Amino acid sequence: MLARLFLQLPPDRRVERFARVLAGLALFGLGISMFIASDLGAAPWDVFHLGVSEVTGIPVGVIIQIVGFLLLLAWVPLRQRMGWATLLNAFEIGLVVLLVLDHLPTTERLIPRLGYLAVGLLCVGFGTGLYIGAGLGSGPRDGIMLGLSQRGISVRLARTTVEALVLLAGIALGGTVGVGTAVFAFGIGPAVQFFLPRLRMKGDVTVLATAH
């Protein structure tokens, strides 16, 4: 049963793989925090997280963790197999947002806020390439899109549909949407496409699973 739910842990370079995952997810969380701190609009999923946080009063970092683990329940009927990076993704990104967000400087000036978007996108793109390139699995949200794509829906359509739905839900709940939302939506794909092949471990033969 467990073999059906979890990917086999690669036998080689395990310390390096876990180091890459932890570093990549930390960068991912930092990038998400920068988008939120810019107050120019968050990533589609984070518009939803912010909306739920607004309604419940629970810190957004904790909401990211809760949603991540709840999404893993949908992996079972979609027959997606989790890796260590999947579980760490669900926990660490929210933890980093929880620890970092309130300590990022805020300003009304537009240029620094746009800088948050630019640096945040690079952090998320680099971090995604780093943790997925470790070959220990993809994140909870990617797994949903991959599972749908394996049932005849294109990855692009699956990603667009899922993110549009969570974005609309987030807006309805009061999440922050704006130019940053568009920057993330249109920029993350090219960013990950650039970083992922460059950050894959040399000589690695594990299958990289990502919905980007």
SSE blueprint:
Blueprint: H1 2-5, H2 14-38, H3 44-56, H4 60-78, H5 84-100, H6 110-132, H7 140-149, H8 155-173, H9 179-199
Helix pairs in contact: 2-5, 2-6, 3-4, 3-8, 4-5, 4-7, 6-9, 7-8
Task: Provide structural commentary.
With 212 residues, this protein is mainly α. The chain has one domain. 71% of the residues lie in helices and 0% in strands. It is built from nine helices and no strands. The two termini are 29 Å apart. The relative contact order is 0.21. The model has no long low-confidence stretch (mean pLDDT 88).
Give the structure's gist in a few sentences:
With 212 residues, the chain is an all-alpha fold.
Q: How much of the polypeptide forms β-strand, as a percent range? A: under 5%
Q: Report the end-to-end length measured between terminal Cα atoms.
A: 29 Å
Q: How many strand segments?
A: 0
Low-pLDDT parts are none
| Average pLDDT score | 88
Q: Tell me about the biggest sheet?
A: none
Helix content: over 70%
* Cα-based radius of gyration, to the nearest Å: 16 Å
Class derived from helix and strand content: mainly alpha
Order of helices and strands: HHHHHHHHH
How many individual domains? 1
Could you say which overall geometry the principal axes of the C-alpha atoms support?
globular
Number of helices: 9
